[in-house]
Specification:
The chain is 32% helix and 31% strand. With 364 residues, it is of the alpha+beta class. Helix 2 packs antiparallel against helix 3 and helix 5 crosses helix 6. The longest helix has 34 residues. The protein is elongated, with a radius of gyration of 25 Å. The relative contact order is 0.09.
Length: 364
């Protein structure tokens, strides 16, 4: 078999696999499947071009390629994929791929006006070992960018709905509706929280085991009960609600925690972030709490042993979270973390303060 025939066969195999895996909604599961089956077609490092103007990396790894591709194609639903591979020369294959696709919103619903046929041309260059050393892919980027704008509009409507729901949750929480003193607390949790909701309140602290992940509605109530008997926030203040990725609600605020068992209160306010998601039915699916580094001094507040603070500082440093000495404000850059992160966008009709996120969130 000639070198051209071998490369043609490998290109056909790769594109057929892509067409098979790529049907459906592009999500983390799809990319995981690509990551498990595609690297063998490539050299360890290769030239990677997408666009025009989307990627140009002459020393790209497959993982880096997947990171770029995820931003380009996440949440697109491919109804069908067709491909044709044509040899250009012995080592170069031209691939025409036609996608019948539609964009989806945060709830997985198809977005009107985004349906259509999207064509891609990819030039694959092979080395003597028949591995891809160059991937050069072009398409109508302006068309797809316009579709992303329609997606943003759809998800912004979802955010506006979620913002109202989020406000209702905070109102109920502030009024004590989630507390143990309310005989109808379970009904409140059922009203606002999804059955499998996750309350993620992880935080490195020496004085309490209450800062952890709680599962389900019962877990949410357990977290509220912990705060009810342990920490009060008499000067609790919200600085604003911001639009995160896929309709998420991000909010930032501050409080000077009061330790209920001892009556001791922090002498300065500490900043925090909430990151909250809702499902299509309007139930909260996750409520994530990110405390600023200043919260570490809660350990000093309730312990006469200053070594406790040193240990907590070391634990935070291990997580890559930036800390400063009080009473200076916690400095931070907008680096929202996690697999589905995007920089929160300020809600334009909110009269709010500046958003100050915390570095290191992606490690939590």
């Amino acid at each position: 078999m000639s070198s051209k025939d071998i490369n043609l066969k490998l290109a056909e195999e790769a594109m057929a696999l892509q067409a098979k895996i790529g049907v459906g909604v592009v999500d983390a599961g799809m990319f995981a499947e690509f990551a498990s089956k595609f690297p063998g077609f490539f050299t360890e490092k290769f030239n990677f071009i997408m666009g025009p103007g989307k990627a140009d990396n002459k020393d790209c790894s497959f993982g880096e390629m997947m990171g770029v591709a995820k931003k380009m194609f996440d949440a697109i639903k491919n109804k069908s994929i067709k491909h044709v591979v044509t040899p250009v020369d012995d080592n170069t294959m031209s691939v025409q791929m036609i996608f019948d696709s539609v964009y989806t919103d945060a709830h997985g619903d198809e977005i009107a006006g985004t349906e259509g046929v999207y064509e891609f041309t990819t030039l694959l260059t092979y080395n003597a070992d028949h591995k891809i050393v160059s991937w050069n892919q072009t398409w109508d980027t302006a068309k797809m960018d316009n579709m992303r704008e329609l997606e943003k509009e759809a998800n912004h409507k979802i955010f506006e709905r979620n913002k109202v729901l989020f406000s209702e949750i905070l109102g109920a929480w502030g009024s004590g509706a989630f507390n143990t003193t309310n005989p109808d607390a379970k009904k409140v949790a059922e009203k606002f929280m999804a059955e499998d909701c996750v309350t993620d309140a992880r935080y490195n602290t020496e004085n309490s085991s209450g800062f952890k992940v709680y599962e389900g509605r019962e877990g949410c109530l357990e977290w509220c009960a912990f705060l009810e008997k342990t920490w009060a926030m008499p000067d609790y203040s919200m600085l604003g609600v911001y639009e995160g990725p896929k309709g998420e609600c991000w909010t930032t605020g501050s409080a000077s925690p009061l330790h209920i068992p001892t009556g001791k209160q922090m002498p300065f306010p500490c900043e925090f972030i909430y990151r909250v998601g809702f499902n299509k039915e309007g139930k909260c699916t996750y409520f994530k709490f990110y405390n600023s580094g200043a919260f570490v001094y809660m350990d000093s507040l309730v312990s006469e042993n200053e070594a406790v603070v040193a240990a907590a500082l070391a634990a935070h440093a291990a997580h890559g979270v930036c800390l400063v000495e009080p009473p200076a404000p916690v400095a931070a850059t907008a680096e929202p973390g996690s697999d589905d992160a995007g920089e929160p966008r300020r809600s334009e009709d909110e009269d709010v303060g500046s958003l100050r996120c915390f570095s290191g969130l992606d490690t939590w």
